[in-house]
Amino acid sequence: MGKGRTKPFVMPIDQTGEDRPLLYVGWIDALPVPAALIRPMARGNFSLHASNAAFDRLGLAPASTKAPIKMRRAIERAAAGAADDTQEFSCRLGEGVGARDLRGAIGRLSAEYGDEALFLLTLIDRTQEMMTERNLRRELVSDSLTGLPNRAGFQELVEQRSRGDEPADNAILLLDLARFSRINEHIGPLAGDELIITVARRLKSSLRSGDILARSGGDEFAIFTRITGGRADVRELARRIRGCFDHPFRIGELKVSVDCALGCAIQPGNDTDIGDQIRHAQIALKRAKQTDRIEIYEPEAAMLSDNRFGLETALRSAIEEDRLKLAFQPLVELGSGRVAGFEALARWDDKDGSPVSPAEFIPVAEDSGLIVPLGQWVIAKAAKVLAAWDSDNGAAPVECYFSVNVSAIQLVRDDIAAVVRQALETNAIGGERLMIELTESAIIGDPDLALSVLSELKALDARIAMDDFGTGYSNLAYLQRLPIDVLKIDRSFVDHMVEDRDKAAIVRTIQSLAEVLGMKTTAEGVETADQARLLSALGCDFGQGYLFARPMDGPEAFAYWRESLLRPII
């Protein structure tokens, strides 16, 4: 190594101006990487006199190059350390596009070279590697379409801002474009991308210089802002954001009107949990989609959300472990008083044995998608119970049917006809023994899909009921096309119908419509004998309600049906 060509170089290890030992550097041309022999020496100037070709490629010569602080500290540690103590470091030389990223190592040479005061410094150029890493990092935290930070980049920037500034109240707003998926379907994905870019530009122009704007999802944007006036500041910002959507967006030859939902979470300056703040803003945004106004997070909403999440987890386990049960409420023929069938209703007791109201767990099931496996379970279980009743009844099948509810979500996501077919075949019962109840909104919301599904069900001989009729906005032309057997009159019209002539008139109108369309009617919520008599007089076919019975378990319902054979219910 001593035969390699070396030239002197003096590099400072301290920038304080104090009299401290400097370094004598000799470049070694024989090694494939930039390398230098270093020996402590007396004071001298701080300039570079010469270097080998490897150092030239790093841009270290000829110039008055000063050692980066990480290199200086590594040299100092090596000089003060043991003989076998090698110090490694990474540093950057220069600025701008010409900067170089280096990885270095320095260690004391062994005594066999005849001088224990010599140190070997080696450097490896990592500029291209670091540039690739920075580019990948930029892609990970940036949205490729708008150039804005993405969700991860937004959270990182907010955390940096929160750590670097003086504590101050701040707000995170989440914005979701209304009807974007439908707009995207009609104008195409390329035009949809252009719309997103245009929205981003408008939003950027409405914000202050210190605000952070990010695209946190497909049609969702996030905004971070400092506030001093609490909710008043938030509402003012929301007003400016809403102003971005006052005028249509021009996309090619089209003018597209877009609206948005806004949810916000305010956080005090002494609270730095950004993840929780974003979650709170998401809770507020979900509510904003329902109310069509800006919603600011309230702690009670988070508590409700946490409870719903816990309920979702417990419900998922209950479905997987088959811990739900069915209750049966009779459907009574008003003219004869006999039991024509039962509506099968899902019931759930938690692990402590306490009943969970369907008003609680059904919305959770719909929001989480659990309504699909829940609906499948109800259909399969109802068919199984009905087959068991047939077996308990001896040779003759039970002369009644079960009615089961199917959610609008299940109608879209599931193959209901296949589920019903499987249940019928597994339990060897006829399709006429099952009635599928769909809400009016589910049927009318997508009439073409409903027609296709209902036709498949009718091919299995299953019957169809439209639940809660009269509470939505039925298209009578579609209603005439659909193969519906029963209209279920909503309980809101039955309640107080004896005293309220308007309600009685509505029930009479629904009954007349059903007769014209060749359908039967079932009145829900029948609680008094007067209601039952009036409904029968109006021509209503079936009644369901507490007047006849509350929902019962399987054995009790079977006994109720047997008793109804001996004497009419009404």
UniProtKB/TrEMBL annotation:
Protein name: Diguanylate cyclase/phosphodiesterase
Species whose genome carries this gene: Sphingopyxis flava
Higher taxonomy: Bacteria, Pseudomonadati, Pseudomonadota, Alphaproteobacteria, Sphingomonadales
PANTHER family, sorted: CYCLIC DI-GMP PHOSPHODIESTERASE PDED-RELATED (PTHR33121:SF79), CYCLIC DI-GMP PHOSPHODIESTERASE PDEF (PTHR33121)
Domain of life of the source: Bacteria
GO MF entries: cyclic-guanylate-specific phosphodiesterase activity
SMART domains on file: EAL, GGDEF
Pfam family of the protein (one): GGDEF
Cited PROSITE patterns: EAL (PS50883), GGDEF (PS50887)
Domain called EAL: residue spans: 308-565
Cross-referenced InterPro entries: Cyclic-di-GMP_PDE-like, EAL_dom, EAL_sf, GGDEF_dom, Nucleotide_cyclase, Rev_trsase/Diguanyl_cyclase
